[in-house]
Amino acid sequence: MYSSEMRRAAVAKTASSSIAEVAAELGISPSSLRRWTLRSDLDDRPRSGRPQIQSTADQVVEALVSTAGARISGKDYSTRALAEATGLSQSIVSRAMRGMTVHRDQLRGSAEITVVAGGFPLVVIGIRLGDEHGVGEAFDGGAGRDGGASAVSARRVQRRIAGIVAALRSAGVQRWPQRFDSEHRQTDAQDLLDLLRDGGERERFIVFDPFGETDDLDVQVPIANAGIVVHREFDAFIDDVKAGLALCRDVPGSLLDTLSGRVRHGFEGVMWRQSSQTDARRSSISSDSMEISSWLPKGTRSITEHLAIALREEIIDSGYQPGDRINPRLLSGRMQVPRSSVDAALRRMVDDKLLDGSRGGSRIPLITTLDVLDLYAGRMSVGEVLLRSLALRPKRYFVPVQLALRQVEASAATKSGIDVEDADLHFQQELARASGLRQSARAFEALTLRLRLFISVLQLDYSPASDRILIDDRAIFRALSLGDADTAVVAWRGKVDNAVRHMAGLFAQRRFDQDLWAQLTRRV
């Protein structure tokens, strides 16, 4: 099949030569060339005959994989499960998956992803190479969650590479060259160019740049395989992305979740950086201003409290489902604490009923609807006591609460469910700390740890409710600033009620007992 460019070139030559001469020169049929000269449009036309099943299947599988997020590693996204979900044969689904990833022999676990950013007209993917410039030891083929020499299995990395490729394709990035250069810009290209300028000496950037935005960029190549590689063609860009990701020891689940949320927006506004994820995780474990109470002496912060927060990150990153067994070795590496400390903390969490230990080891609990209603009813009651106390306190105690509210405002603007959830729970914790009621605040924090686990296990997405969350938080803060405890309590009750109803809407297949909820939370 001849390309449209070749057909146009051949027709152009007929202006100065005969059809026979041009056909002989280019090695094509004179009759074909004659037909081309009669056509007004020389672009490729749809081929007649039976549609290609594989190309259609590729698009269907890409659409499912692109929105899977961190759960792409789970059994729900195996080729068998995808075949059952789509009605396609498993062999066709397997071919579609192979087209989005690399062979396990190509995997080398020495590099790590540092940044993924995108917005018309640029996509930037940064990879920090290992000591051997990206050529490390091959992955262990049989390593899984609970065994094997490698902490991450080859199959997991293969699927996660497929998740990134599927997101790029499903978002329509390949069609960017057909867009008008100025009409659809939603991202400042200068911000993406600054990422390239600020790269480290072992950092390799793979860039899709169909309009030449990087032409004036001073490209330096400090070591082999590092520097900046710019692609104008989408297929070449995807091939390079797969090769680069094959060098990485893992693909973070938080990155996959970010991309899955931006697919429907055409990859506009994507900004994931390894440093921000690491800093956020470190601050959640060690900062006085986050989940652990600032009034608790640092020496009394238990490993259990630290582990509960780190476990939430692990659930999100690994796509754990209810009933899955937790790998203490992965948690030990994430928290950078001895394995024995993690084992002891997991046993404590089992004793506290935060985790399930009925089948040996520590497993993600099976959460019932009664558990959820019980938790929210308890938070509502303790929260009322904290708000009434805070309304009576001097305004100087409101400063950290106001700062936390600004974080909610900033997160709500991004429409990121995870960011909104984190910021909102941080705001609630600051309300508890500012109340001056140490015992009630501690009880509220214990309920918050349990709530974080519930949200992670149930894979709740709070992005659709971000505006409602912000409205409720502003109403609570405004009433407290005026010393109006009753109005603040009414807003708080409405906020918790909205959270329960939002959960019921997301899990329509679960039967929430609304009558029980009304009885648990009604005023006496």
Molecular structure report:
The protein is mostly helical. It folds into four domains: 4-38; 104-270, no CATH class; 287-351, Arc Repressor Mutant, subunit A (Orthogonal Bundle), CATH 1.10.10; 369-521, GntR ligand-binding domain-like (Four Helix Bundle (Hemerythrin (Met), subunit A)). The chain has 21 helices and five strands. It has a five-stranded mixed β-sheet, sandwiched between helices. Helix 15 (369-390) packs parallel to helix 21 (514-521). The chain is elongated and about 95 Å long.
Keywords:
single chain, 524 residues, mainly alpha, Arc Repressor Mutant, subunit A, five-stranded mixed beta sheet, 5 strands, 53% helix
Helix-strand layout with pairing:
Elements: H1 4-13, H2 19-26, H3 30-38, H4 53-66, H5 79-86, H6 90-98, E1 112-119, E2 122-128, H7 154-170, H8 189-197, E3 203-208, E4 227-231, H9 234-245, H10 253-262, E5 270-273, H11 274-286, H12 303-318, H13 328-335, H14 339-351, H15 369-390, H16 399-414, H17 417-434, H18 438-457, H19 466-481, H20 485-506, H21 514-521
Parallel strand pairs: 3-4
Antiparallel strand pairs: 1-2, 1-5, 2-3
Helix pairs in contact: 4-6, 4-7, 5-6, 7-10, 11-12, 12-13, 12-14, 12-18, 13-14, 15-18, 15-20, 15-21, 16-17, 16-19, 17-18, 17-19, 19-20
